[in-house]
Amino acid sequence: MLRYLDDLILYDNMWDDDNSLGPKEVHNYLTRVMYNRRKKFNPLWSSLVLGGVKNGKKYLGTVTMIGVHYEDDHLATGFGNHLARPILRDEWKEDLSFEDGVKLLEKCMRVLLYRDRSAVNKLQIAKITEEGVKVYDPYSLKTFWNFKAFQNPTVGAEGSW
Question: Regarding predicted confidence, which is higher, 52 or 145?
């Protein structure tokens, strides 16, 4: 993927026209890459999320390994698309502060963590603005595993596998 992006940036810079690609253009390019790889039966086994700001306009888009793409105000991939997106639809709003956005993200990640016991509770936040990208230090989510249902999850289960 990095090779594709490096080639795109090199090609864009060769024009030397003081015009640079924005997040929407890069997202469209990645959509074509993923679809063309799928068409040749050689897909890149990744889902991509691309965000950015250009000329004051925010952009957030996603593309799957088969080239399915869309843009929205909030995105998730994989299992998060099924469990986190409903939470985001209910609680996200346009004027959400950065701190409230982090709390909402932590809530989504906690739900995902509790449903996938092989997951790790480490998280890293990045903030994208027109000035650039700020990546914060990784940290661990606070979790509570002493719920009675977690102690013996098969209590009350009928039958056997």
Answer: 52
Residues 2 and 61: their CA atoms lie apart, in Å, by 18
Using an 8 Å Cβ cutoff, are 74 and 87 in contact? no
34, 66 contact by CB (below 8 A): yes
| 137 dihedral zone (left: phi>0; alpha: psi -120 to 50; beta) | beta
1-72, what's its fold? Answer: Glutamine Phosphoribosylpyrophosphate, subunit 1, domain 1 (3.60.20)
Q: Do domains 1-72 and 75-145 have the same CATH topology?
A: yes
Token pair of 49, please?
């999320």
Q: CATH number for the 75-145 domain, one of 3.50.50.60, 3.30.70.360, 3.60.20.10, 3.40.50.10330?
A: 3.60.20.10
Question: Pairing relation of β-strands 57-63 and 48-54?
Answer: antiparallel
Per-residue pLDDT of 2-33, as tens digits, reads: 999 999 999 988 888 888 899 999 999 999 99
Tell me what pLDDT residue 57 has: 93
pLDDT band at 160 (very low <50, low <70, confident <90, very high): low
Tell me the one-letter amino acid at 59: Y
